[in-house]
Amino acid sequence: MTTALPKDRTTELEAILNERIMILDGAMGTMVQRHKLEEQDYRGERFADWPTDLKGMNDLLVLTQPSVIQGIHEQYLAAGADIVETNSFGATRSDLVQYQLSDYAYELNVAAARLAREAADKYATPEKPRFVAGVLGPTQKMTSNAVGTQSISFDELREEYAEAARGLVEGGADIILIETIFDTLNAKAAIFATQQVFEEDGIKLPIMISGTIAGEDGRTLSGQTAEAFYNSLRHATPISFGLNCALGPDQLRQYVEEISRIAEMRVSAHPNAGKPNELGDYDLGPEDMAAKIAEWAQSGFLNIVGGCCGTSPDHIKAIAAAVSDIAPRPLTKQEPACRLSGQEPCNITADSLFVNVGERANVAGSARFKRLIMEEDYETALEIAQQQVETGAQIVDVNMDDAMLESVPSMTRFLNLIEGEPEIAKVPIMIDSSKWEVLEAGLKCIQGQRCGELHLP
Question: How many other CB atoms are found less than 10 A from the CB of residue 377?
C-alpha cells in the first residue's frame, strides 16, 4: 500500500499569518500531570511486562493512553489554538534508550502526529483551519563541544532526527517544529535531516525554528547570543524563527524583541508561565501572562504565540483573546550583509571596514602551528588561535591540508577543541581546505555560521 504524500499547506499558512497573529498551543507536561497517571497507566496492556520503569515517559502515552493525549490536544484547540504540537518532544532513539524504547522511535512519532491530526481535523472549519506541528525536540545530547560535553556525533543525531521527522510526516504533520534548541549544532542536524527526508520522499513542508535562552545572560546553553543563533540558522529559511522555554515573559521579552528586529521571516514565541517556584510550579496566571503577551504584540514583535512550561488551555484562551485584534508583525527586509557568527554575531555590511582574518592556525601558513599539530600538541596549538582573537582577529582561518596529516580527524579534533574555548569560539571560523571531505567534517563541528574556503588544485 502506498502512503499518500502530505499536502503542502505553506500557502494556506502564510495567508493566515498575513492577516493575524496565530496561536500555538501550551504545555503538554503540565496537562499530563493533571491526570495523575501512575506506572501502570504509562505501561498500558502492551508494555505491562516492560523491564524498566516507564512513569514519566510522556511520549509513550501516544501508544498506551492515546485518549489522554488527544483530549489534551482538543482542550487547546477549544481554547483557540491554531497550531497543536505533537507529543513527540523526546521521541528520538537516544532519548528513549534509558527506557529501552529506542526501537519504538518511528512508531511513537507516527502515532503522535496521527493523534494531533485527528484532533486538529475535528476542530477545523473553513473559517478557522487547524495545523499540526510535528515536534523535533532538542534531545538530551549535545553535538557541539561548546561546554566540553559532546555526547553524540552530528551524523548519529542526523539519522535519529531523520527517523523522527519521517514518522511525523507519515502521521500527518503540516509543519516540522524544531524547538527548545539549546545547542545550535543539534538544530543544524535536525534541519539537515528534515530537508533530507523532504528530498528523498518528494515532499516539502514548512519548518519552524525555536531556540532557548538558557539564562538571564542572554545566551543559549552552548553559548550563543540570540543574534548569533539567528545568523547560524537563517539559511534554512524557516517560515518562523523564535524563542521558547527557560524564561517567562518578563525575562524573555528583550530577546524576542531582538529577534523581531533582525529576522527576515515571521517571529514566534512561547514562553513559560513565569519562573518556577521552590516547588517547581509556575505561578504566572492566564490573565497576567496574556497582558504581558499583548504588550509584545502591540510592540510589533509577534506572528505566532503560545505557551511553554506551566501553561494550560486557560493561558492559551486568554492569550488568544488578548492578541485577537492586534496586527501581526510585518515582514521586514534586512540590508544585504554577510551574517556570520561564532558565539557572537559578526555582520559584514557595505559600511564595514576591512575584516581581520587570523591565518596562523594553518599548517600551510605557520611552521610552528604545523609542528604542534604533527606532534599532537593541540592545547598549545589552541593558544595560537586564541592569541589571534586577542590581537584583533574577527575570523579565525583553520587549515589542516598537508600530505603528512590525516586532515579529516585533525580538523575535527581541533574544531571540537575550539568550540570548548569561548574566547576563541566567540568569532566565526573559516574552514579552509582543498578537500570537500575536510570542509564537510569541519561543518559538523561548528555551531556558528562559518566561512568556507575551498582551494581548488
Answer: 12
